[in-house]
Specification:
The complex is a heterodimer of chains A (316) and B (602). Chain A has one domain. In chain A, 77% of the residues lie in helices and 1% in strands. Chain A has 13 helices and 2 strands; from the N terminus they run H-H-E-H-H-H-H-E-H-H-H-H-H-H-H. A two-stranded parallel sheet of chain A has the order 1-2. Chain A is globular. Chain B is of the alpha+beta class and 602 residues long. In chain B, strands 1, 2, 3, 4, 20, 21 and 22 form a 7-stranded mixed sheet that branches. A 5-stranded mixed sheet of chain B has the order 16-17-18-7-19. Chain B is globular. Chain B starts with a helix and ends with a strand. Classes of the chains: A mainly alpha (316), B alpha+beta (602). At the A-B interface, helix 3 and helix 8 of A face helix 3, strand 2 and helix 17 of B.
């Protein structure tokens, strides 16, 4: 069941990306990308590798952090309910079969497309800055999200009898996927919301390069946000926290990439010192990415300590 | 307390809040205030409700919602504390950190009244596990519990009746609904599921194999625990309903409300009887011949003797005071000494109890001494001892259990599956090879018809039914959501098997804290629950409202028989809706007060 679902999602999202590539990215940028693919990948690849390592690490750690969370975490389900009451029940009172189907597919397929397409679209841009910022922002979302999941133990409304578990009663097969990648105590904040809003904010920032992507991303991000509540998976408070997290991560990612660019520019060997490691194979690139990441962080900490009183990013 | 203390407290607090100047109160003023309110709080009562959540238990959350509606009608505020299945039992059974929890009673077999002994006797209130988790202390209750252990016949029935009516009056826990466990099964490879599902997993020994070519039985569950922890004495564990109970053997097995010799081939009682009472002083138990553990070691009387002293003190005397097992206390509290006379004979000495009750002690699983004697140290993490209350044996996951049961462990992956196989050296295997055997002690429980058995963890009731339909599993063994019934009935060869469980859903009170220590308060809380409506709506009719934990047994007291309404805690409303005025009046009548906002204050 899980495998066929994964294949289905890959096919659907792949098809959407293909259509998006032709219509939104456009022919000129695609052919440019084709000729410049290797240098761009060399330049921005380490970011992607770092993100992949982070995600893999996260999935291994998840069971451990969950147990740990019961040990140190703050149980807030009751408090959330005391604040927002039956808001989710109210949202679900508008349910129709059509809406349920729409939001279910948005929650799974739409969400994946919304997150993956910009990676593709931004690597097709001449300047790689947005691409790197996006990858860093995604990474920050996961890191901060995990920290918050350890700090707070909260179950979703569907688990405590507020509203219905619409997604899983309508499309039980989706649950075989979501139980693989998340635990029921991890609902505060909503990472579906924060990652979608992150992609939405970037769509706004890149509206000049990709004017057609902004409205699509806006509708998708808005739909994902609503779907998390409509399907009974998240509380409204999780969603608010997710939006705040997204804003913080975009801000942090921009500062991070800017700081890193300055550092590379200031490095004695010029810009290629760290990131461009030709002919040494992916193993070395990965290693250099890891080493580089720690050096960037150290550098970034020093800078942000010096010029700002807000060092929330570096402290993580 | 000296006169200056209140003012000192207040000014310190005031300074802390940064309003020192505004809140300078003299001692006299504070005293006046304290007298006026008669305590240190005028706030609305907030009740914490701890519930298990997750797809394994679809009923606890809706029961909590029903209770919450009642509490709100009575002007009581609430905080829901959802927890995973094992976290719930950690909070309730180990840490006693709760007000009210919603859960199921720990026995799934037809209970003898003596199951109430560890559950409610005050002498267990300091122990962790399923020993008096309510912290209930009632001298009359203790006396009745002690008496029923010694008495016979109608005397015992009368005592058990009095015990039930006392529980009805004091409600240390509120029995709500006996759930009818819904299973979906396929009849194309195995059959006789009705027998198998009445008392799973023991019932699996009654299963009939049709022509399953590979003899591999696959069951689906939504309970992750068996994939993670296979320790029979772990408190967070549900032993009765788990296949772990087929990995171990007791001396005497309890099935279908009857007991039959299992590891024991014979039991000789030496009792001192009077017309009203008898006392089983000693029993000499002879084991079957050639018993073996799954690892090939011989199972001897020494293992039996070890088991009973181990259940009584899992620290084996190494701790300052004994650390009893969180489970099987009913059994271990009956036995005062166990001595191996030779390899196959063990002599058991009992505390004051009739033969009938004493025999219940023999239903505890027998543990291999060579494995568990190494787990008697005080539990520690990275060399740091946590507390004197837990031994390694209690916190151990027992990942590769070695028992003597008809099935043996093969492999498992956390959060995914467990596979076991038939244990060909089990005495049941010998019986099945020898058709002429005169040994009929095992009755209809036979050596497994399946060669291997896998329990697959799946995510929810709909997924269970989907897997059943796709022939991925032969049956479901965790309770299905009633919403799935229709689909199973409409889709041959799937079919529906239901069995009433004795593990009733109940509200448990932490009577150690106020106002839950007040029996009248607890009984009025019980009256906020419409048990009949719960059975009809939450359980979709697959459940029976109950007023006694012994409902469904011959021991049920006449006055606790369900007769359309609750005989001892009648609902304060109608058709599932609590009547606000009646609820508040009921609390006023027992001395509770309301503020101007109609909030119950404490």
């Amino acid at each position: 069941m899980l495998l066929s679902l994964l294949i289905e999602i890959t096919l659907v999202v792949g098809a959407c990306i293909l259509v998006g590539a032709v219509t939104i990215v456009g022919r000129t940028r695609l052919s440019e990308l084709a000729s410049e693919f290797r240098p761009r990948l060399r330049q921005s690849g380490p970011y992607l590798i770092a993100l992949a390592v982070l995600l893999a690490f996260n999935s291994v750690l998840r069971d451990v952090t969950d147990e740990f969370s019961w040990f140190v975490g703050w149980e807030i389900t009751g408090a959330i309910e005391a604040i927002e009451g039956n808001f989710i029940g109210f949202v679900q009172s508008f349910q129709t079969e059509l809406l349920t189907t729409y939001f279910s597919y948005i929650y799974v397929h739409g969400y994946v497309f919304l997150l993956v397409f910009p990676l593709f679209a931004y690597i097709a841009l001449q300047r790689q800055q947005r691409f790197r910022e996006l990858v860093v922002a995604y990474g920050l979302n996961y890191v901060l999200g995990t920290v918050l999941y350890v700090m707070f133990i909260a179950f979703g409304p569907r688990n405590v009898g507020i509203g219905e578990s619409l997604l899983y009663t309508t499309f039980p097969q989706f649950q075989t996927l979501t139980t693989e990648i998340n635990n029921p105590t991890n609902v505060f904040p909503s990472l579906h919301t924060s990652l979608s809003v992150t992609a939405g904010i970037f769509a706004y920032k890149t509206r000049e390069a990709y004017p057609a992507w902004l409205p699509i991303a806006a509708v998708l991000a808005g739909s994902v946000v609503i779907s998390t509540m409509y399907l009974g998976i998240h509380w409204a408070i999780d969603v608010v926290a997710g939006i705040v997290l997204a804003a913080g991560c975009v801000y942090g990612a921009e500062r991070f990439v800017a700081a890193q660019d300055r550092w590379v520019a200031a490095a004695p060997e010029g810009k290629s010192a760290l990131l461009e490691v030709p002919h040494l194979g992916p193993r070395v690139e990965m290693l250099s990415a890891a080493v580089g990441a720690t050096r960037w962080t150290a550098r970034f900490e020093r800078e942000s300590d010096a010029d700002s009183d807000s060092n929330e990013v570096s402290s993580d | 307390m000296t006169d200056s203390e209140p003012s000192r407290t207040v000014s310190r607090r005031a300074a802390l809040t940064g309003a020192a100047g505004a809140l300078v109160a003299s001692a006299g003023c504070v005293r006046r205030l304290r007298t006026t309110v008669g305590g240190d709080s005028t706030g609305q009562l907030v009740v914490r409700i701890t519930i298990p959540v997750g797809d394994y238990d679809p009923f606890a959350a809706p029961i909590a919602r029903h209770l919450i509606d009642g509490l709100e009608a009575a002007g009581i505020d609430y905080r829901l504390t959802p927890a995973s299945q094992d976290e719930l039992y950690r909070q309730v059974l180990l840490a006693a950190d709760f007000d009210i929890y919603i859960g199921r009673l720990p026995t799934d077999r037809q209970p003898d009244p003596d199951v109430l002994y560890p559950l409610l006797h005050s002498k267990f209130r300091g122990e962790v596990g399923w020993q008096n988790p309510f912290g209930f202390t009632n001298p009359d209750c203790d006396e009745l519990l002690d008496d029923q252990r010694r008495e016979r016949g109608t005397d015992r029935q009368e005592t058990v009746d009095s015990l039930q009516s006392l529980l009805g009056q004091t409600q240390p826990f509120v029995p709500l609904v006996r759930p009818e466990i819904i299973s979906g099964v396929r009849r194309d490879r195995f059959d006789d599921w009705e027998d198998a599902m009445t008392e799973p997993p023991t019932g699996l020994l009654r299963l009939n194999r049709l022509d399953a070519d590979d003899g591999h039985l696959t069951l689906g569950t939504t309970d992750p625990r068996v994939t993670e922890n296979r320790n029979p004495i772990s408190a967070t564990y549900s032993y009765d309903t788990s296949i772990v109970s087929l990995l171990y053997d007791p001396l005497v097995i309890e099935s279908g409300g009857e007991r039959r010799n299992w590891l024991a081939s014979g039991i000789e009682w030496e009792s001192a009887a009077t017309p009203e009472q008898e006392e089983a002083a000693n029993a000499t138990v002879t084991l079957r011949e050639d018993l073996q553990w799954h690892d090939g070691e011989p199972l001897t009387a020494a293992d039996v003797a070890f088991t009973f002293s181990f259940l009584d003190d899992t620290a084996a005397g190494s701790a300052a005071s004994s650390v009893p097992s969180p489970r099987f206390r009913q059994q271990s509290s009956l036995i005062t000494a166990a001595t191996a006379l030779d390899d196959r004979t063990v002599r058991l000495t009992f505390d004051e109890a009739s033969e009938e009750v004493a025999e219940g002690a023999l239903t505890a699983p027998i543990f291999p001494e060579h494995i568990w004697s190494e787990q008697t140290e005080i539990a520690s993490i990275a060399g740091v001892e946590l507390s004197e209350a837990a031994t390694e044996a209690m916190v151990w996951d027992n990942p590769e259990p070695v028992g003597s049961g008809p099935i043996q462990f093969e492999e498992a992956t956390d959060g995914s599956f467990v596979t076991v196989s038939r244990f060909n050296d089990h005495f049941l295997a010998r019986a099945s090879n020898n058709e002429d055997s005169t040994d009929d002690a095992d009755g209809d429980l036979a050596f497994p018809v399946f060669e291997e058995l896998t329990v697959d963890l799946l995510s929810s009731s709909p997924v269970l039914v989907e897997s059943l339909s796709a022939e991925d599993i032969d049956a479901t063994i965790s309770p299905l959501d009633p919403a799935e019934v229709e689909r199973i009935e409409d889709e041959p060869p799937l079919s529906l098997v239901t069995a009433l469980s004795y593990a009733s859903y109940h509200l448990g009170f932490n009577t150690r804290s106020e106002p839950f220590g007040d029996p009248s308060f607890r009984r009025t809380i019980a009256r906020l629950c419409d048990k009949a409506a719960l059975a009809a709506e939450v359980f979709g009719g697959y459940g029976e409202p109950v007023a006694s934990p012994l409902a469904g047994t011959d021991w049920l007291a006449d006055e606790l028989q369900w007769d359309g309404t609750d005989p001892v805690a009648p609902f304060l409303g109608e058709n599932g809706e609590v009547d606000d005025t009646r609820a508040k009046d009921a609390f006023r009548d027992i001395g509770y007060r309301y503020n101007a906002n109609d909030e119950l204050i404490v």
